[in-house]
Amino acid sequence: MFIEVTGLKKGYTTGEVRTEVLKGVDLQLEKGEIGVILGPSGSGKSTLVNIIGGVDRSDGGSVMVDGTTVTSLKDVELTEYRRENIGFVFQFYNLVPNLTVGENIEVCANISTAPLDVDQVLASVGLLDKKDRFPRELSGGEQQRVSIARAIVKNPKLLLCDEPTGAVDFETSRSILALLQRINTDFGTTILMITHNTAISGMANTVFRLRSGAVVERVRNKETLPAERIEW
Ligand SMILES: Nc1ncnc2c1ncn2[C@@H]1O[C@H](COP(=O)(O)OP(=O)(O)OP(=O)(O)O)[C@@H](O)[C@H]1O
Ligand SMILES: [Mg+2]
Q1: Where is the ABC transporter domain (predicted)?
Q2: Range of the domain at 152
Q3: 116-152 burial: b if 16+ Cβ within 10 Å, else e
Q4: Ligand 1 close to Cβ of residue 44 (< 6 A)
């Protein structure tokens, strides 16, 4: 297994109140596959993906990614793990506003040991002609494509996407999903994606439904749907 999450637990204490967010999550995904996590708001989706990506810590259980036990890494090792292996795509892009499109991608390429060519990545998301623009000069869908370019330029083994189509319209969503599918095919990148949209689950090899901090359903799709054929 490429991702192996076992009995993962995470809680928060605010004031006197303790909330258990993840109550023993189990999740497995094979290398090169697309996994989709569905679940209501507050069910712990982002918390789970952040722990897998090494930006948050668990309270118990374990996460293994490509043979590394992420949950037992020290802080320095965790930073390195994140830098070497993980690409993150967020709902609200998180681009640096005073850097151009090209520069936003370059800063990520620069911290990687084996980055892809910036222009080639920009071309693959269809934005080479916008390289010298600033994020504010782009549409929402274009900004999301820049954020995908930024995540893939370091050629990560694992691409984690938290509601990548949450802020764009139907047609733009489909083109972003098609782009993710193409990255998965072309680079063999394993993708784990959070969404509210059940229609998107047709793209996945495995669909995980999270409810109240646990995986309550797991569906394997025998065949996956090309993004172009997804309707909602
Ligand atoms: N830093 C924090 N401190 C306290 N509580 C937190 C913290 N981060 C998350 N939570 C709580 O944990 C729960 C799960 O949050 P999480 O962001 O993982 O949900 P989610 O499934 O991603 O929801 P959404 O679909 O709205 O993004 C929520 O009830 C949230 O309030
Ligand atoms: Mg979330």
Answers
A1: 3-232
A2: 3-229
A3: bebeebbebbebeebbeebbeebeebbbbbbbbbbbb
A4: yes
